[in-house]
Amino acid sequence: MKGGGQMDSKITFAIIIAAILIVGGFIVYNTGATVSAQGSSSVKATPDEVSVYINVETKNTTAVLAQEQNKEISDKLLFELVKIGFDKNELKFVNYNIYQDCITATVYSSYCSPNGYRVYQQLVVKTNRTDKVPSIVDAAINSGSLVSYINFEISDAKQRELKAEALKEASENARIQAESVASGQGKKLGRLVSLQNQQYGGYNGPIAYYAADSSKGVASSNFEARSVAIDISPNEQDITASVYASYKLGWF
Fold first, then answer.
1. Average pLDDT of 202-229?
2. Taking 60 as the threshold, does the pLDDT of residue 189 lie above it?
3. CA distances from 170 to 46, 166, 195 (A)
């Protein structure tokens, strides 16, 4: 019986020691000096898509005639685009409108003096084949349409890739800075306490490369669009990221 009591005492003592070590380790693990740093990164991004916006606008004495005329031009535009290698699934018509054209007596008059009907729709050609842009403009010109805008864009897939790259570089930069601070105190960097994506300055949307001037007329605007399209070249954008990291200082 005496031996059993001694064994129980030893087990109890071992449990107490283990508990003390666990509590002590927990306190050490969660206390002590920390070092924080903010890392930043900037990644150059070249747009990988171009969107050409083409307007098809017609006017006639009746809505039906204006629609028929618009369809004729739209069909010819599609034919010209398919002829240069585009699939119809890549071509998207948007913003279809039919409205009565009006002649107003004064600028401030709300009275509408009927002046026929207008039909308007816009076709968007989005592609990563920038070499096709001059041919797209030619297709618009040949069909009797107006090139409205030429925009450069960064695809969703590339945005995700570049954002991840910028965040990774910013995180690495934060760690390097924290290591330098710790080294200056004669310490080594300990475990990571917190990590926060503090700021992300990403892609701000399409980059306008060309916009038609309505005062110049269709022919002049298309001629200008053609000249621009020949020398098409997207400008780079910066995708930036900032990361805030906090680390424990090592004990030695």
1. 83
2. yes
3. 20, 6, 11
pTM: 0.70
**Separation CA 171–CA 197 (nearest Å):** 9
Count of domains in the chain?
Answer: 2
Residues 162-177 have a mean pLDDT of 93
d(CA 128, CA 88): 16
Residue after which a domain boundary falls, among 113, 131, 153 = 153
| The pLDDT of residue 107 is above 80 | no
Secondary structure class of 251 (helix, strand, coil): coil
Residue 27 has pLDDT above 50, yes or no: no
Compute the average pLDDT of residues 110-117: 78
pLDDT at 26 over 50: no
The Cβ-side half-sphere exposure at 200, using a 13 Å CA radius, reads: 15
Phi, psi angles (nearest 5°) of residue 178: -65, -40
Closest CA to 53 of 155, 153, 152, 150: 150
**For residue 74, pLDDT beyond 90:** yes
pLDDT at 39: 94
Dist. CA 230–CA 39, nearest whole Å: 41
Residue 221 in any domain: the answer is no
38 phi, psi to nearest 5 deg: -115, 120
What span, in angstroms and rounded, lies between the C-alpha atoms of 55 and 96? 10
Q: Which two tokens stand for residue 225?
A: 């669009």
CATH number at residue 168: 3.30.110.170
Query: How far, in Å, CA of 232 to CA of 186, rounded?
Result: 55
Contacts of 244 (CB under 8 A, 6+ apart): 36, 37, 38, 39, 174, 194, 195, 196, 198
The answer to whether position 195 is within a domain reads yes
